[in-house]
Amino acid sequence: MNYRYGEYLKLAREIADGIGRIVSENAGNMREMGKKAFIGAYGAPTSRIDAFAEERALEIIKESGMELNVLTEERGIINRSAAGACETLILDPIDGTTNCIAGIPFYAVSVAFAKGDIGGKLSDVFFGYVKNLPANEEYIAAKGEGARLLTGGREIQILPENAASAAESGAKPIRASVYLGSFAEPPEFLRKIRYLRSMGSASLEMCLVAKGALDFYYFHSAPEHRLRIVDIAASTLIARESGGVVLGENGKELEMAIDLKDRKNLVAARNKKALAILV
Fold it and tell me: Looking at the domain 3-158, which fold is it?
């Protein structure tokens, strides 16, 4: 990966390590950590563990000396354009908070960097980083340079651009993760899937698509519960750089505004051929 992305990877890792320590230090007190700390940006309740994790991440960003605008899940937009910031860091400190609080080892830190000021869009993201904290796995992508998977800091796999999926090769069973919100009508294609999961961390589930562990990830919910850009900014780049596709409900490449108001349903598939099962 190009050396010029080193400073972004270094900061993303420092954020993930800092949040990892917060989670470890409070592992025996998750019942308290799950309680509401405050009402976050746009009215969503924020748990104590989310608040602590985000506070530590913001401290690390400040200590880095990098001039960045920041969009976080809990506090919303931190605009530093007046100070010269021309890039935006998009952060979900803990994606899969419910899992984290319950002791289910499937949650992640998601960090993405986008060119331009606040007010940009998903396609402006040029670097993405998702860390599965319990598994110590890092998914990393740079725009135009592919995606990588590392475990314990050691590269174990370059995510293959042309890996065949079960769906396209005809192999069985087809593997998918599906989230259906309340009152969502189950789609017909569910009948074709033998191994169906819903794991509670959109960023990690999309990374499993990039890895080839899942054929696709399907998310469909009511407007107020749809995914926001903080959930999937990094994992969308990772999926696309591994040869996958990420589409919106309209069947076109997913695009979102860099803010917390825009919410979308989506499907992420291993490649275009894997989408055939959805038809």
Answer: Fructose-1,6-Bisphosphatase; Chain A, domain 1 (3.30.540)
231, 203 contact by CB (below 8 A) = yes
Where in the chain do CATH 3.40.190.80 domains reside? 166-278
Write the pLDDT tens digit of every residue in 9-32: 999 999 999 999 999 999 999 999
Strand, helix or coil for residue 84: coil
234 and 110 Cβ atoms separated by less than 8 Å: yes
Residue indicated by tokens 């819903």: 198
pTM for the predicted model, two decimal places: 0.92
Question: Residues spanned by CATH 3.30.540.10 within the chain?
Answer: 3-158
Give the tens place of pLDDT for each residue, 153-206: 777 766 665 455 555 555 556 788 999 887 677 788 887 787 788 999 999 999
Tally of CB atoms within 10 A around 77: 15
- CATH assignment of 166-278, among 3.40.50.300, 3.30.70.920, 3.40.190.80, 2.60.40.10: 3.40.190.80
Q: How far apart are CA 189 and CA 48, in angstroms?
A: 39
Provide the phi-psi class of 152: left if phi over 0, else alpha when psi is between -120 and 50, else beta: left
Unique residue bearing structure tokens 């954020």: 15
Whole-number Å distance between alpha carbons of 63 and 35:
29
Q: Quickly list DSSP for 162-227.
A: TPPPHHHH--S--EEEEEE-TTPPPPGGGGG-SEEE--S-HHHHHHHHHHTS-SEEEEE--GGGSB
